[in-house]
């Protein structure tokens, strides 16, 4: 009888190991894009810019959106910024739906004429902080000086935009954006209008700044080489309308990788992924 009862009763669960710790839950992505389709009106018709995009951006990522002109990269960045509503799907930041612009997402564009010409460099960096009431006059000035020093422009704080080179204007725009303390920094081809040498220098400085501050970056480009050297992850978008074609790990590449066989092979692979089967 005792033997029969032992067979029928459930076995006791094994005792936990004394040093065992529960497995850590995976971190929730900072930015989540789910089934996102974007549309715009053109010539009386509705055109689809992106179709059912889904991807995650982790905190501290340098996440690059790469694709040919017209694939919806800039539209996607505007949607993340809250300036373009979704036709389908949603965007979540810190688990909350993005429903409009906010200081937690700040954008830097390639047109640096966005700097008011009547304001000094210092006043340009202070302006968003004051306009959004995120800082007092004294706090805004302190933060502006801090970030101008970070981008190497403290000596030019009292200059005006017309007195700056293109690269210096780019640095002011970056300082102004980071002074806001955004959860995500959005950059839409910010170096496209610069000459090749200045562009290389700005890429170096952006990577150095990221290494110091570890901010989260979503960066748009149509340059395969720029995507690989700046991003730790690269999302490839198909031509119009933009669809996710692939997501690649670019962590192993940097500005010194560009002449290597591995780098060139990856460039060719990405080109084939982007343009195979595309009529041109």
CATH H-tier superfamily of the largest domain: P-loop containing nucleotide triphosphate hydrolases
Whole-angstrom Rg: 24 Å
CATH top-level class of the largest domain: Alpha Beta
The assigned CATH architecture of the largest domain is: 3-Layer(aba) Sandwich
**What is the quaternary state of this protein?**
single chain
Q: Give the helix tally.
A: 8
What is the structural class?
A: alpha/beta
Mean pLDDT over all positions = 88
Proportion of residues in extended strands = 15-25%
Helix content: 25-40%
Topology order in helix (H) and strand (E) letters = HEEEHEEEHHHEHEHEEH
Biggest sheet, strands in spatial order?
A: 6-7-8-3-9-10
Task: Give an overview of the whole structure.
This protein has 280 residues and is α/β, with parallel strands linked by helices. Helix content is 34%, strand content 23%. It has two domains: 58-104 and 183-280, P-loop containing nucleotide triphosphate hydrolases (Rossmann fold); 116-181, no CATH class. The protein contains eight helices and ten strands. The strands form two sheets. It has a six-stranded mixed sheet with strand order 6-7-8-3-9-10, with helices on both faces. The protein has a four-stranded antiparallel sheet with strand order 2-1-4-5, with helices on one face. α3 packs parallel to α5, α4 crosses α5 and α5 (166-179) packs parallel to α6. The termini are far apart.
């Amino acid at each position: 009888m005792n033997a029969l009862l032992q067979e029928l009763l459930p076995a006791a669960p094994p005792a936990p190991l004394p040093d065992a710790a529960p497995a850590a839950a995976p971190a929730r992505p900072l930015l989540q894009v789910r089934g996102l389709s974007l549309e715009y009106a053109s010539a009386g018709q509705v055109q689809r810019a992106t179709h059912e995009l889904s991807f995650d951006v982790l905190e501290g990522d340098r996440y690059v959106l790469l694709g040919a002109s017209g694939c919806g990269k800039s539209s996607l960045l505007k949607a993340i910024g809250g300036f373009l509503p979704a036709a389908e799907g949603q965007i979540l930041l810190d688990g909350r739906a993005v429903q409009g612009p906010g200081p937690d997402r700040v954008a830097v564009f390639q047109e640096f004429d966005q700097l008011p010409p009547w304001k000094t460099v210092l006043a340009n960096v202070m302006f968003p902080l004051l306009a959004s009431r995120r800082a007092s006059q004294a706090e805004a000035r302190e933060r502006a000086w801090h970030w101008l020093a970070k981008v190497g422009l403290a000596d030019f704080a009292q200059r005006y935009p017309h007195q700056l080179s293109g690269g210096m204007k780019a640095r002011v725009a970056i300082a102004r954006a980071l002074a806001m303390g955004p959860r995500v920094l959005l950059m839409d081809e910010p170096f496209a209008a610069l000459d090749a040498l200045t562009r290389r220098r700005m890429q170096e400085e952006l990577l150095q700044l990221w290494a110091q501050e570890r901010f989260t970056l979503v960066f748009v480009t149509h340059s395969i080489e720029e995507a690989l050297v700046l991003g730790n992850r690269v999302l490839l978008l198909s031509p119009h309308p933009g669809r996710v074609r692939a997501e690649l790990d670019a962590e192993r590449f940097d500005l010194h990788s560009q002449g290597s066989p591995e780098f060139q092979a990856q460039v060719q692979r990405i080109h084939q992924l982007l343009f195979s089967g595309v009529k041109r």
